[in-house]
Write a structure and sequence with these properties.
The chain is mainly α. The chain has 17 helices and no strands. It is globular. The structure holds zinc ion (2 copies). One zinc ion binds near residues 247, 258, 302, 322 and 326.
Length: about 400
């Protein structure tokens, strides 16, 4: 649905990425790294304490069932130690004192509210919840894993961790995690009620009798077939492309960039992807393995991780495969729709993954999207002038 020939080659999506002074890479000794880390750990520690105090309002019921309180308290204590330590280091470096002071203030409030010894709050019968625990835990795990990979073997070496639009995508990350209740409602409640007529007890009994690894592989393949179909439709149906264009407006790829999704897109795609597993009646363990794998791969394929993974890159979707999907160069338009298995694109004739180079530019060709999460939410619903006629 992106038609490069109709648009001026000087379109913003085609211009090379330039880094201004505020986007300078972080350097040791100037206090920015320790200041940001102090504020980040201080914020997460305070939010974690609030999760302990208001568990019914701020934590995810399906995650709560699997928590080990001792491990969580140790994590919280470690977060406060890191925040305090980095805050003191910022002062010692005598730079960015405001960042250090903010980090120490947040840690102080977390301590005043009880710190890692805070008791778990009383139970309430509440109608809804915010997935603050999911946000904290996934942010810690993803940042630790993907920033390590991106630093060990970066694709673009000159791209800083806090690259332009990082905070913009960070807001999508926050929203997508806090709203997990809505997404869970769609997959755990809406799918069963809408598609109960598809259930066949014989089929489900047979499927559940298969080894777990076979169930996992079948769930992976069928989910990716659904992903392929919905993703391709979003590129080929003009109305749907308006929603998906928000995801393609990313111009710098990293682990955070994949969070940029129009709110309505994951509501639909997650239902579609989970439908085959629901019809087949997949077991809990294979389903959990699939959800963890899908989450990991979603972060990985967008990351600025440059290792091409040898022959494995032909079997599973890697950063090289999905970076080509996000490319705005002519050869990269409308290709590589699969989320997990490049083989599906080979089967349906949409595979394109040169191994001697990566795409030059990323983003939407022509008609650049507005900046800001709210404007991007409204973007698909707004009337726009038709594109200029070809010259
Ligand atoms: Zn796409
Ligand atoms: Zn993507």
């Amino acid at each position: 649905m992106r038609e490069p020939d109709r648009f001026d080659a000087s379109s913003p999506a085609r211009r090379p990425v330039k880094l201004d002074d505020t986007d300078r890479p972080l350097r040791l000794g100037e206090g920015r790294i320790s200041g940001y880390l102090s504020v980040a750990f201080g914020t997460l520690s305070l939010l974690a304490v609030l999760c302990f105090i208001f568990p019914d309002y701020l934590t995810t019921p399906s995650l709560r069932a699997g928590y080990d309180l001792g491990v969580l308290r140790t994590l919280l204590a470690a977060g406060m130690v890191f925040s305090g330590g980095f805050g003191v280091l910022t002062f010692a470096l005598n730079r960015r004192k405001r960042l250090g002071a903010l980090g120490l203030l947040l840690t102080g409030i977390a301590l005043a509210l009880g710190g890692s010894a805070v008791p778990v709050g009383p139970r309430h019968d509440v109608p809804g919840f915010i997935g603050l625990d999911w946000f904290i835990l996934d942010l810690l795990a993803s940042a630790l894993l993907f920033i390590t990979l991106e630093k060990l073997s970066p694709h673009r070496r000159d791209q800083p961790i806090l690259r332009p639009d990082f905070w913009h995508d960070g807001r999508y990350f926050i929203f997508n995690h806090l709203a997990i209740g809505i997404f869970l409602f769609m997959t755990v409640r809406a799918v069963p009620s809408l598609f109960s007529w598809t259930i066949n007890a014989g089929l489900q009994g047979w499927f559940r009798s298969l080894p777990g690894v076979v169930q996992f592989l079948v769930v992976l393949v069928t989910a990716d077939l659904m992903e392929y179909a919905t993703h391709r439709a979003m590129h080929e149906v003009p109305f749907l492309w308006r929603f998906h264009a928000v995801h393609h407006s990313v111009e710098r790829m990293d682990w955070m960039a994949g969070s940029r999704l129009h709110f309505l897109e994951p509501l639909v795609t997650r239902m579609a992807v989970m439908l085959p597993a629901f019809i087949l009646g997949a077991g809990d363990a294979p389903l959990l393995c699939y959800i963890v794998w899908a989450g990991f791969q979603a972060g990985l394929v967008h990351s600025n991780f440059g290792l091409e993974l040898g022959p494995l890159k032909y079997l599973v979707a890697t950063p090289l495969f999905h970076h080509w999907h996000h490319g705005s160069d002519k050869e990269a338009i409308d290709i590589n729709y699969a989320a997990h298995l490049p083989l599906l694109d080979r089967l349906f004739g949409t595979y394109h993954m040169p191994t001697d180079r990566w795409p030059e530019n990323y983003g939407v060709v022509g008609d650049p999207l507005p900046k800001g999460i709210w404007r991007q939410f409204l973007y698909p619903f707004q009337r726009r002038d038709p594109p200029p006629p070809p010259v």
